[in-house]
Structures are given as structure tokens and as C-alpha cells.
Design brief:
GO terms for molecular function: ABC-type oligopeptide transporter activity; ATP binding; ATP hydrolysis activity. Keywords: ATP-binding, Cell inner membrane, Cell membrane, Membrane, Nucleotide-binding, Transmembrane, Transmembrane helix, Transport. One of its GO terms (cellular component) is plasma membrane. Residues 344-576 form the ABC transporter domain. It is a single chain. This protein is an alpha/beta fold and 582 residues long. It has 2 domains: 10-325, ABC transporter type 1, transmembrane domain (ABC transporter transmembrane region fold); 344-581, Rossmann fold. The protein is built from 18 helices and 12 strands. It starts with 9 loop residues before the first helix and ends with a helix.
Length: 582
């Protein structure tokens, strides 16, 4: 059963953000400085309608006050507002972006340090979605909303203060509009977080479905499940549409509330303005300035409400990111494993993904230097056995030990020294060939690297002009599947584990260079305890013991000759495979 990573609560999110904020040198002083700059810019911005009101009074009274001087003051106010607001936005945005960058690094580091079985249980789609979609959504939200939130917040506060300073009766405008604004915001915030969180979760589910279909494409085709997988992806995609529509509908309702707030602001403002002019409390110019402030307030109010949509989506992403880092994995203490020998014991292991047993009551012993092959039809449980031995899954019952210690209790150093998994899906890291190989052994010499490349029969290396300095990966030379697998096997030779788990690691053996790849795999398993999930029966035939699996159980076991003599399932598989080759 899939166990997604949790979504952090607001106190947890606030705690993590506070920790990252403290990690930025001078964060508090930068924040205060940005607030001061934005405050000065907001005050200068309010001075603009006041100057326009003064112009109205000058024109009405035909006073001798120079319009040129007022115009100059108006231009100065506009320049000060623009300069200080932009300066404040820059300082605040730089600070928030640094915090987001630290949070992103923290999440990636935490994800890399998570126990592999924890990632597998949660589903790689969930982690991929949080690492890509949610990080991108959060970064976009910060970039888009920080300037608008700062500008809108200061504009609303300074406008309210300026109106009250003109005449206390303008307090009625605030009193009349504020309750409607609060009700609208509360109604929105009551339903919006859940709807946006559901939208992000549905996106994660869609990513998981797509990844499952891509990674399991061979199984999907083998069992004719194309239509079923298409329907699952369609259903997951439609869930995204429905949740997205629900979230946008919430924003539409909020827009209706904001129209009501705007109507109340202008109506009450006009009434108060009329009364103050009639009583002589304010001049026509002052009231004009007040109404201009209210009209100008429409932009910040609407801007603030509009970005709430982005803020909610960004917060949903932030909560999902913090959900990964809120409880970082504690370093596994050394289990006190004895010197590495490579003795493997799988004892009466059973495991379920939630619906029936994937493997049931499986036992196998692999001594140092022995190779055990696992064969069977797709879905028989072969890969699950490999995952249990590699520590990718925790058995529901039974035990999996290497050198007498449970695999899942080994520390990273103990596990790396003993155990390595090579699968069909290998990755060529971007960088030079030397950097790629040194991931397995940072202190490896060029001679050692050249030696392991020779041992895996990487003849293509001889044609590289730059040798170990050749840039490979996404930004360099694109290695074909056989070469990429040989590179992965060379890394394993540098790592030199005592136990090797090979899950269809030679699946490219049907392509050009098949024999070289097969020889490389045999070079890796030589002298080591090896569990090989074999898709080619000629590979299995050379193993010291063969396990034949069906429906999660071991139905036959023995050497190649013993299983042929028994005339059981393995012999039928071998006969069918030989006939297929012919």
C-alpha cells in the first residue's frame, strides 16, 4: 500500500521557515530594512493624490500658489515612491529567494538521505512531484506574490491612516468595508487550502500513474494492459481537472465579494466627502484627494485577493515540501556487523503491496562466491525478492540478513561495503567519465578506472579522444544502453561489494554488444554472492542454484541439470525458450 509523505501543518511549516530564515546571515536586519524602504515608498505614494487634491483647491480658489511647485513636489513624490518601493522589493525578494533556495537544498538532501524502502513505500511519483512541480510552484509563487503582497499591504495600511488623518469621519469607510472584507477572506481561507492541497495531491497521483506506465511498459505490453493503464492515467488526469476547477471556482466567488467591498468603499466615501464639504470640515480638493485614495485602493485590494489564489497554491506546495523535511531521517547507527564476507540468508520471507502476497514464504541461502538465479513469468515475484534483499522493501514477515545482520538495520557505510543493486534502468551522470566513475570510489586512480572499464569490455572507451575527460550524460556524449550498463557495472567493480543483486541488469543483451554485456555481468558476480533476476535462461543455466517462482512462491529449486531432469516448470520454460531462439 502506498504511504505518501505527509503534508506539514502550519506550525510545522512556520518552524521550518523560521529555521531557514535564521540560517541566512543578517536576515532580520535585511527584513527590517526592506520594511522601512517599502514604508517610505508607500507614504510617498499616498502623497501623490494629496498633491492632486491641492491642485484642485488652487484651481477653485484661484490662489496664487504656484502650480509649478506643486507639480514638482508631485514628480518628486512619484520618483521617491518608485525608487524606494523597487529597492524594498529587491531586498525582500532576495531574502525570500535565498530562504527558498535553502529549503530546496534541504528537501533534496533529505530525499537523498531517506531510506530507500521509505521512498518506495511512498511512491516515487509523490517524491518526484514534490521535488519538481511543488518546488517550481513555490518559486513562482514567491516571485509573483512577494512584490504584490508587500505593495498591497502597505498601500492599504497607509491609505487607511491617511484617510483618518484627513478627517475622523472617513473612519466610517474602514468600518463599513472591513467586515465584508474579513468575511470574504475567512470564507475563502476556510475552503481554499483543502481544495488546493487536493489539487496538488491529484497532480502527484497523476505523476505516479504516468511513471508507473513508463517504467513498467514492458509488463504493460506483455499483459496487454495498455487500455487499463490509459484509463488509469485518464482518471488521474481528470481528477486534476476537477480539483483545479473547484479551486478556481473558489476564487470566482471571492471576486464577487470584492466587488461588493469596492462598492461600499466608494459609496461611503462619497457620502462622507459630501458631508465634510457641506460642513466645511474639508475642502473640495481634500475630498478629491480622499476619493482618489479610495479609487487607487481598488488596485491593491484586488491585487491582494488575486494573489491569494497563487498564495494558496504556493502554500499547498510549501506544506508538501516541508512534509518531507519536517522529520528528517536519523542516521542509522552502525549495526556492529562483522567483517564483510557476503553470506546471504533469506528466511521464510513474505511481503505484500496491500492486495495479496507479492512473495510468500521464500527462503534462499547464498554463500560467498555463489550465484543464485531467479526465473519465472512476469509478476511471479522475482523483482520483489531482489528488492527485499537490496533493502528497498521491508518484509512483512521473515528476515533478510547479510553477514548475519538484517539488511534494513545496516548503516549506510555497512550496507555500501557489502551490498549493491544493479538494475535494468541505469543512469549516466552529467560530467566527465572520471567524475562518473569516481562516484563509486572517490579516491580511485586513473589506472583503476581504466582497469574496470577493460574488465567490463567497454571497447567504446578506446575511441574517445578525451579519454576519462570525455563529458558524458545530458550535457555531453550520449552513451547507448549497452555502454551505459557497462559503465554502471564498472562503477560496481570499483565499489567492490561482497553481495550483488542484479535485477535484469543485462536486459539489453538482445542488442548489439550482447556478449560483451553478459561477460561484464559475469565479471561482476565472480567471487561474490549474487542474486540474479534472469530474463535469459542461458544466463540462469550457469548459476549455482536456480529458483523458479510462480505467484510469489518458489515452486522449484536446483541446478540447471537437476531442474531439467525433474521435467517440471523450469523444463517447460527452457524448452519454450530454446524453441523461441530457433
Amino acid at each position: 500500500m502506498s504511504m505518501r509523505f505527509p503534508t506539514a501543518t502550519w506550525p510545522e511549516t512556520r518552524k521550518v521557515l523560521g529555521r531557514h530564515l535564521r540560517q541566512v546571515p543578517g536576515a532580520l536586519s535585511q527584513f527590517i530594512f526592506s520594511i522601512v524602504l517599502l514604508g517610505v515608498g508607500a507614504v510617498a505614494n499616498i502623497w501623490i493624490p494629496i498633491q492632486l487634491g491641492r491642485i484642485v483647491d488652487v484651481v477653485i480658489s484661484e490662489a496664487s500658489t504656484s502650480l509649478v511647485r506643486i507639480s514638482i513636489e508631485l514628480v518628486i513624490a512619484a520618483l521617491v515612491a518608485a525608487i524606494f518601493s523597487a529597492w524594498g522589493f529587491f531586498v525582500l525578494s532576495r531574502l525570500t529567494e535565498r530562504v527558498i533556495a535553502n529549503l530546496r537544498e534541504n528537501m533534496v538532501g533529505t530525499a537523498l538521505g531517506l531510506p530507500v524502502h521509505r521512498v518506495e513505500d511512498a511512491g516515487t511519483g509523490d517524491l518526484v512531484s514534490r521535488s519538481t512541480d511543488d518546488v517550481a510552484e513555490l518559486s513562482a509563487a514567491v516571485t509573483e506574490t512577494v512584490p504584490i503582497l508587500a505593495n498591497s499591504g502597505f498601500a492599504i495600511v497607509t491609505t487607511a491612516l491617511a484617510l483618518i488623518a484627513l478627517d475622523w469621519q472617513f473612519l466610517l469607510v474602514v468600518v463599513a468595508a472591513l467586515p465584508i472584507y474579513v468575511i470574504a477572506a475567512r470564507r475563502y481561507l476556510r475552503v481554499a487550502p483543502g481544495r488546493y492541497a487536493a489539487e496538488r495531491a491529484s497532480m502527484a497521483d497523476r505523476a505516479r500513474r504516468v511513471l508507473e506506465a513508463i517504467r513498467g511498459r514492458a509488463t504493460v505490453r506483455a499483459f496487454g494492459m495498455e487500455k487499463d493503464m490509459h484509463n488509469r492515467i485518464h482518471a488521474a488526469s481528470w481528477d486534476v481537472v476537477e480539483h483545479g476547477y473547484s479551486a478556481r471556482r473558489t476564487m470566482f466567488v471571492l471576486q464577487l465579494w470584492m466587488t461588493s467591498v469596492e462598492f461600499v468603499l466608494l459609496t461611503v466615501g462619497l457620502i462622507v466627502g459630501f458631508i465634510t464639504v457641506q460642513t466645511g470640515s474639508l475642502t473640495v480638493g481634500a475630498v478629491t484627494a480622499a476619493m482618489l485614495m479610495l479609487i487607487r485602493l481598488r488596485g491593491p485590494l484586488m491585487g491582494l485577493m488575486r494573489v491569494l489564489d497563487t498564495v494558496q497554491s504556493g502554500y499547498a506546495s510549501l506544506a508538501r515540501i516541508v512534509g518531507v523535511v519536517i522529520n528528517p531521517p536519523q542516521p542509522t547507527k552502525p549495526a556492529g556487523a562483522p567483517p564483510k564476507e557476503g553470506h546471504v540468508e533469506v528466511s521464510e520471507v513474505s511481503f505484500s503491496y496491500g492486495e495479496g502476497w507479492a512473495v510468500e514464504d521464500v527462503s534462499v541461502t547464498i554463500k560467498p562466491g555463489e550465484t543464485v538465479a531467479v526465473v519465472g513469468a512476469s509478476g511471479a515475484g522475482k523483482t520483489t525478492v531482489a528488492a527485499l534483499l537490496a533493502g528497498l522493501r521491508v518484509p512483512d514477515s521473515g528476515s533478510v540478513t547479510v553477514d548475519g545482520v538484517e539488511v534494513t538495520t545496516l548503516s549506510d557505510a555497512e550496507r555500501v561495503a557489502r551490498l549493491a543493486l544493479v538494475s535494468q534502468e541505469v543512469h549516466v551522470f552529467s560530467g566527465t567519465l572520471r567524475e562518473d566513475l569516481s562516484l563509486a570510489k572517490p579516491d580511485a586512480t586513473d589506472e583503476e578506472m581504466l582497469a574496470v572499464l577493460k574488465r567490463v569490455h567497454a571497447d567504446w572507451f578506446d575511441h574517445l579522444v578525451d579519454g576519462l575527460d570525455t563529458v558524458v550524460g545530458a550535457q555531453g556524449l550520449q552513451l547507448d544502453p549497452v555502454a551505459a550498463q557497462q559503465l554502471a557495472l564498472a562503477r560496481m567493480l570499483l565499489l567492490d561489494p561482497k553481495v550483488v543483486v542484479m535485477d535484469e541488469a543485462t536486459a539489453e543483451a538482445g542488442s548489439q554488444g550482447a556478449q560483451a554485456l553478459q561477460d561484464a555481468a559475469e565479471e561482476l558476480t565472480r567471487g561474490r554472492a549474487a542474486l540474479v533476476v534472469a530474463h535469459r535462461l542461458d544466463q540462469a543455466s550457469r548459476a549455482d542454484e536456480i529458483l523458479v517462482m510462480d505467484n510469489g512462491r518458489v515452486v522449484e529449486r536446483g541446478t540447471h541439470e537437476q531442474l531439467l531432469e525433474s521435467e517440471g516448470r523450469y523444463r517447460h520454460l527452457w524448452t519454450a525458450w530454446q524453441r523461441g531462439r530457433e
